[in-house]
Amino acid sequence: MKYDEHFINQLLEDEIKFSDSLSHLYHYPDNITHLLYIIIPSFILKYGMNYRNLIEKCFSSVSIIIDDKQDKIYQAYYFSQPTLKNGEYQVLKGIVLNNYQNIGLMQLLDNLIHEFNHAINSFQNEILVDDNIKLRTGLVYHYFDKKTLKLLNKSENVMIEEIVNTKQTEEIINIIRTLSDYHIENTTITNTLYSIYHSIDSNYRSNSYFLESLVCQKLLQNKTFFSTIEILRFEGQLEDIYHFFDSIVGKEGSLLLLSKYLTQSLELQKQLSHTKWFKQSKINKIKEMNQKALDIVLKFDKHTIYK
After folding, report:
1. In the chain, is it the N or the C terminus that has fewer CB atoms within a 10 Å radius of its CB?
2. Is residue 204 part of a domain?
3. pLDDT tens-place string over residues 142-199
4. Are residues 188 and 269 both part of a single domain?
5. CA 76 from chain center: how many Å?
6. What is the pTM of this model?
7. Which domain, by its residues, includes 222?
8. Are residue 101 and residue 13 in the same domain, yes or no?
């Protein structure tokens, strides 16, 4: 979508002031602050001006923590934890950046957008307190003990959450890339956009969950699936997502089963790098899990008209 140039510049200038206030509050380094100058407006363009206040509240309540732990698997992660304050349950949340000193511009940008997108898609209907505390991260529920606040377990939809989140991360980075088409008045932003523009192709692809996203490619391209899950996930209507998916596939539990196969495949891939013997056996098992996941994806795609 092409926007009015004055609108884009005004949006950027407003969010520069907002980003500077966050930087002052949380003591962010300049490179993080300068990325927020373009990340926050791009989230607003992605989700719409109607959600501008929600997006700004989310960025205000989720702090970026630079741990710089050298972690080969998790370069960054979003966390949320229930706390009890003045007799009321609240949510403490943040984004931890590992390997901060050793990653390039595009990976840092991808990490920040990926994790903040988890946060924004968890903001509505985030916490429910009954027998336990149920805390939502996108499509995933985490269950905590009301007294100890310790994690008890989590629902099995982690991989669907991750591949949907990865797809949206790509979309937001592509929105950032299109900002280069406008005459931007702020030189800090134009310099950042120049670096980004010359670092990626016209259609950005994330390295996160690459094989799992490839297996689910038809699902992610399916307009019935993606447009529906985007809305329901953003609003936190998770039960409707299960019913929607399973009813189209024609078998209850299909979405959870899909996530289970993808999770097993990912775990086997992690084990493979440390395996000296019987590697082919693990490779065959990975292929088996991916094929089972693909069968569910193809069944859903086959039974939808709007693709």
Report:
1. N
2. no
3. 999 999 999 999 988 899 999 999 999 999 999 999 999 999 999 999 999 999 998 8
4. no
5. 11
6. 0.93
7. 210-302
8. yes
